[in-house]
């Protein structure tokens, strides 16, 4: 008996698993270096633990209050079923289809077409859309975007990304504290100087690599949410058209800003941004549109194949 | 969803539970004797229509298969499809068998995750309408009673009363936040016009 029409995407799972393993390795390298520096010295270890607990506490707070922080940052307001019956009904049905608890629903009053999901657990999650999104998309497209956001909630992306980024935060801390110590310690022996130099270098390398890895992970998780959302509604085509519309509108917005900057164009011999090297895609938090559309088109074809 | 699936961002589509529907005829009897609600003979299956030709073909097959129950396909204002079946009001068992034929066909063809809910309609002598909603993904039921004539209002007192009446016969959804309103479901009152946008 076929339980679903969709073939599992083992490639995506494998790449995401590999990224996570690499992040874990990086974490171990970092812990090893810290232990190597402070290992013999009880007082030093205590200081290091305190120094690490503070930023981790901040990160924890960012995760714990992620719903409130994101809502405040986007100036989004929670809405009741009476205020937004259509939106609530869409979320109700999608949640019943996916068998997940219903998140709170919020609306941000801005023309920017966008949507986001946040909250530390599926029980505390919030899904928010902007009014600009509702104006531009059809109901079916809006529902496709909502199912993408609900998939983020189901995959616990806020938690996973917070834990993933903690490696980078710790590495940055190691780098800076080693740098400060090496600048302050004039009277120490050569050995200490060498250790601090190594710690700084390791901190820099780990920080850079973990930054790239978390961005890679973020892109994979966007693809996973696209996939799960399209499978949930059974209509990849609506998500495709929604993404195309949003990206088209998003691309037009900087253009307006550029026109405002036109008086300064005389100073540019050649607009730097037109000659985009693919380097930027290394740092992007979202995969390129073509890649997302390609994946959704594959799902759409799977739905078109006979039994 | 397990830890591993969370880490890899793999949510598996939830499969429906189909067999709990067969306890409905008993509950219908209880409803009639204890609350005065009789079946209207109208039942429906709500699902999400997938894109692509295979799903279209399955829907056409279903309508042929159930020709005896005068099936009618309705698209509601939220974009969901309701396959409405009609039987003699006394024949709840027959209606349930046909609802089961719809959902087991969809499950067999790989579209089980697209099933949302099933409704069986009831009415009392004073014209109040009531539906027992079956949630496929939870395997539970809940009562849904729109206030006649009012715009998107539920008769919560009646719903709670019905929960008490049929609670012994049916697995009732314990989480009340999942008793979502199925406004505009066919077989209940005509849906009020939705505000556009």
Measured between the Cα atoms of the first and last residue of chain B, the distance is 35 Å
Helix/strand class of chain A: mainly alpha
Sheet with the most strands, sense and barrel status of chain A: 4 strands, mixed
Strand order of the largest sheet of chain A: 1-2-4-3
> How much of the sequence of chain B is in beta strands?
15-25%
> How are the strands ordered across the major sheet of chain B?
2-3-1-4-5-6
Structural write-up:
The complex is a heterodimer of chains A (307) and B (197). With 307 residues, chain A is mainly α. Chain A contains eleven helices and four strands. Chain A has helices at residues 10-38, 42-64, 66-73, 85-98, 131-136, 139-154, 157-184, 190-233, 236-260, 280-283, 289-304, and strands at residues 76-78, 104-108, 115-118, 126-130. Chain A has a four-stranded mixed sheet, with helices on both faces. The longest helix of chain A has 44 residues, at 190-233. By secondary structure, chain B is of the alpha+beta class. Chain B has one domain. Helices cover 29% and strands 21% of the residues of chain B. Chain B contains five helices and six strands. Chain B has a six-stranded antiparallel sheet with strand order 2-3-1-4-5-6. Chain B is globular, with a radius of gyration of 17 Å. The N and C termini of chain B lie far apart (35 Å). The interface between A and B is large, with 55 and 44 residues.
């Amino acid at each position: 008996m076929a339980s679903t029409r969709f073939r599992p995407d083992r490639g995506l799972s494998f790449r995401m698993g590999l990224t996570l393993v690499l992040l874990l390795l990086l974490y171990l390298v970092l812990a090893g270096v810290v232990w190597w520096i402070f290992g013999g010295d009880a007082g030093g270890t205590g200081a290091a633990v305190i120094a690490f607990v503070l930023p981790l506490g901040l990160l924890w707070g960012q995760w714990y209050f992620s719903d409130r922080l994101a809502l405040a940052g986007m100036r989004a307001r929670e809405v009741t079923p009476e205020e937004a019956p259509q939106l609530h009904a869409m979320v109700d049905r999608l949640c019943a289809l996916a068998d997940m608890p219903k998140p709170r629903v919020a609306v941000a009053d801005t023309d920017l077409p966008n949507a986001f999901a946040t909250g530390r657990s599926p029980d505390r999650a919030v899904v928010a859309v902007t009014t600009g999104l509702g104006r531009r998309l059809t109901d079916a497209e809006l529902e496709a975007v909502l199912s993408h956001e609900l998939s983020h909630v189901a995959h616990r992306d806020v938690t996973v990304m917070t834990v993933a980024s903690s490696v980078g935060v710790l590495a940055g801390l190691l780098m800076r504290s080693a740098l400060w110590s090496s600048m302050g310690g004039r009277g120490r022996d050569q050995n200490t100087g060498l250790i601090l130099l190594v710690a700084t270098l390791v901190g820099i390398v780990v920080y850079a690599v973990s930054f790239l890895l978390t961005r890679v992970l973020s892109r994979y998780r966007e693809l996973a949410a696209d996939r799960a959302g399209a499978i949930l509604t059974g209509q990849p085509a609506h998500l495709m058209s929604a993404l195309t519309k949003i990206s088209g509108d998003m691309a037009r917005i900087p253009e307006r800003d550029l026109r405002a900057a036109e008086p300064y164009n005389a100073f540019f011999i050649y607009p730097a941004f037109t000659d985009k090297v693919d380097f930027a895609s290394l740092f992007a938090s979202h995969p390129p549109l073509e890649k997302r559309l390609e994946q959704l088109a594959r799902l759409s074809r799977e739905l078109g194949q006979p039994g | 969803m397990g830890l591993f699936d969370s880490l890899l961002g793999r949510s598996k589509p939830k499969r429906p539970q189909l067999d709990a529907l067969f306890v409905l005829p008993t509950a219908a009897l209880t409803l009639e004797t204890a609350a005065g609600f009789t079946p209207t003979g109208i039942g429906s299956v709500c699902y999400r229509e997938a894109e692509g030709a295979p799903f279209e073909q399955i829907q056409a097959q279903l309508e042929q298969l159930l020709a005896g129950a005068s099936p009618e396909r309705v698209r509601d204002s939220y974009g969901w499809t309701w396959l409405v079946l009609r039987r003699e009001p006394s024949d709840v068992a027959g209606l349930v068998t046909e609802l089961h034929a719809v959902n087991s066909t969809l499950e067999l063809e790989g579209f089980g995750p697209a099933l949302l809910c099933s409704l069986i309609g009831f009415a009392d002598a004073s014209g109040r309408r009531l539906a027992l909603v079956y949630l496929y993904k939870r395997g539970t039921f809940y009562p849904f009673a729109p206030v006649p004539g009012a715009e998107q209002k539920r008769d919560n007192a009646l719903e709670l009363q019905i929960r008490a009446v049929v609670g012994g016969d049916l697995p009732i959804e314990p989480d009340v936040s999942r008793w979502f309103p199925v406004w505009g479901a066919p077989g209940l009152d005509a849906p009020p016009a939705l505000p556009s946008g």
